[in-house]
Amino acid sequence: MTPDYEVRRVGRDELALMDDLLGLFGEVFGQPDVYGGQRPGAAYMRRLLGSGTFVALVAVQDGVVVGGLAAYELIKFEQERSEMYIYDLAVAEGCRRRGVATALIKMLKRIAAARGAWVMYVQADTGPEDEAAIALYSRLGVREEVLHFDIPVT
Which end of the chain is flanked by fewer CB atoms within 10 Å, N or C? Predict the structure, then answer.
């Protein structure tokens, strides 16, 4: 069965599409102020989207962003390779369980391979709100038990 959505990378000048992606993240994560309260200006967003180390992917259905992924390429120092870190991944509630998240990850995997990455990784919370994400990531990768620490910079 052919999906009724298209997955593609957000281009440097597709600021409206990036705004839609930010809106989706805010809605799905219940944090509209974080993703919409102080959005970056056009020059900042173009620089980010054109940087080569940031990847924004969207799943679009009938002109509406129904899924999205934001990732960063981390250029390694110990070997000539990189890692892809999936920072955010979200699918609109009405579009879940249709392969959208998997399609986004598969596209990132192709981009990562083309850039010489050796691994992609993602973090998930251990609470019940992330059970679906944990199930998805468990199907696609190997689970590692790690601790995460936020260190304030101010």
Answer: C
**What SS3 state is found at 4?**
coil
Structural domains in the chain? Answer: 6-140 (3.40.630.30)
CB-facing half-sphere around the CA of 70: CA atoms within 13 A? 15
User: pTM, whole model, 2 decimals?
Assistant: 0.85
- Report the alpha-carbon distance of residue 128 to residue 34 in Å, rounded: 22
Interatomic CA distance for residues 109 and 9, integer angstroms = 12
* Pairwise CA distance, residues 63 & 68, whole Å: 14
CA distance 55 to 9: 7
Longest dimension (CA), the chain: 51
Per-run averaged pLDDT (10 residues), the chain, 154 residues: 88 97 96 93 97 96 96 94 93 92 94 92 70 68 68 74
